[in-house]
Amino acid sequence: MKRTTILYAIIALLVAFNVATIVTIIYRNDSNAAQIVADGEATPQNNMGKYFRDKLNLTPEQHQLSKTINQNYHRRAQGYATALEDLRLEYIAELGQASCDSLSIDRISTEIGQLHKNLKVETARYYRSMKEICTPDQQQELNRIFVTILNRDTPGKHNSRNQYQSGESGRRGNSNGNGNGRHNK
Asked: 166-169 — which CB contacts under 8 Å span 24+ positions?
């Protein structure tokens, strides 16, 4: 009897994950080509180079460097995004099977996790490269833009992480900078 209950619980979790995935796909497909950021401005999806040039007031040299950085990032990121989409479709197809194979689900989930990690690392590399070509004032604005974009890409999350927008460092919950989240006495 316990085995049946466990199987039903696993099936319920998989169905919930499948529904969440479908809702996410529909939500993302219905969104506009331009996303609204915290200050009410639209950030163009297809022309971030021009957006950064204008928002950061880049010099011509900085703009040329940013174009190269942007092209390299998008080439690598697109590869990850395509592979992630293929795996999501494979995952959904596996869930749709009469008897889905848990080993396949585990393998696909692991691959999705690794690709997602790689994409996050690539995004951090892009941010650091952009930061290197910016002046301190431009770096602050770049940070604000990235925080806004990253918060926007997390539906349902509060903007409580906006502490990073002002350049504060540390981990979540670390309000004192000592690394443990506790107040010093």
From this structure: 167/140, 167/143
Contact between 71 and 126 under an 8 Å Cβ cutoff? The reply is no
CATH of domain 34-158: 1.20.120.1490
Q: Give yes or no for a contact between 180 and 174, defined as CB atoms under 8 angstroms apart.
A: yes
- Euclidean distance between CA atoms 74 and 53, whole angstroms: 17
Domain ranges within the chain, ordered by starting residue: 1-31, 34-158
| H or E element that contains 47 | none
Cut 0.70: pTM above it: no
Q: What is the pLDDT of residues 72-97, one digit of tens each?
A: 998 999 999 999 999 999 999 988 88
